[in-house]
């Protein structure tokens, strides 16, 4: 059963026993012990004779599952995990999975509603499900046998639930999804035009086969998405600076307002 514990910055707030960690992650307990022995997973803390796991363990297991699903062997996975600082927060670890997404093929996992609730820090409400659906991270499948099943982008599930907990609403998620879809459509059209004008003639001159063209497109995808991500991050950084400057301006204006001038206004 999950329990809260005192924490400092960068530490997780929730602890799990081995059985609950296994249930939430979908990884067998014996496999969790194996990953710990092999150095893929940090050793648990101890509470008496019991092993105590944290949110870092959960998101690391999710990342391991994601990499395994894309064909990575344990040695390659360990090499990737070793590049993540040992004191990384659960969000930072989850972001590593997020940043891998553009380089990996989509691989949604089909799970039941009960399994979905087990993967998150708390049961999901219908509104939570609506947010995840709007963000494109979850799709409800037909219930042939009366069991609710969903296709879920499990690599981003932890981050999405954190967004929900911070305050994103179904309406905000819908508008966000619409805005991103519109921007994606425009970007794809412009990139398609660029490819037609500047890239395809070069490939044709070199007598590239269809397989060569497909390989080029596959290589171009992560490079272009990384460039978009950099541009997006810079735009967010600029926005934060503008908001900070505006907030400081408002504070300065309040501080410079005297009672007499307020009354005179």
TrEMBL record:
Regions of compositional bias (Basic and acidic residues) in chain numbering: 243-254
DNA-binding in keyword set: yes
Record-linked PROSITE patterns: HTH_MERR_2
UniProt-annotated stretches for the region Disordered: 243-265
Compositionally biased region (Polar residues): 255-265
Pfam families cross-referenced by the UniProt entry: MerR_1
Alphabetized InterPro entries for the sequence: DNA-bd_dom_put_sf, MerR-type_HTH_dom, MerR_fam
Key words, A-Z: DNA-binding
Domain HTH merR-type intervals: 15-83
Protein name, entry field: MerR family transcriptional regulator
Protein's organism: Yaniella flava
